[in-house]
Predict the structure.
Amino acid sequence: MNFTPAEARNFWTKVSMTGPKTQYARKRCWIWTANENGHGYGVMRFRNKRIYAHMLSFLIHKGEIPDGKEIDHICRTRNCVRPSHLRAVTHRENMLSGNTIVAIQAARTHCPKGHPLSGDNLYLHKGKRGCLICRRQQARDFNAEKRRANA
């Protein structure tokens, strides 16, 4: 996609290059100062279409977004448009690299009771991981309660 000098100037008038440094990126974020959506992502109208500011920054500096990829903020700052803080990744990579419930759960190595979530103790059900030791104990407790209720 080719950009006219006027389009690029219009984009850069809405950016502050004095953003915060983050723990994820060494260089300061470039913060989008114009409109944001309800989730904190910068948005603007470009060629009669609404587009995310970070996506437009990626298009201007790095080229087209590959099919099946989305733009991830390495810095985890949603309104950052610094090209070196943006990368094209799959949706799965984006979810696992962020501060999401999915990422937190995927990073877990042990259940709340301290049993490992690996090897023979790993319980998989409907795409979710669990502890087989705890699952078996829950089943024993449930069955014991049923027996007490029927006695």
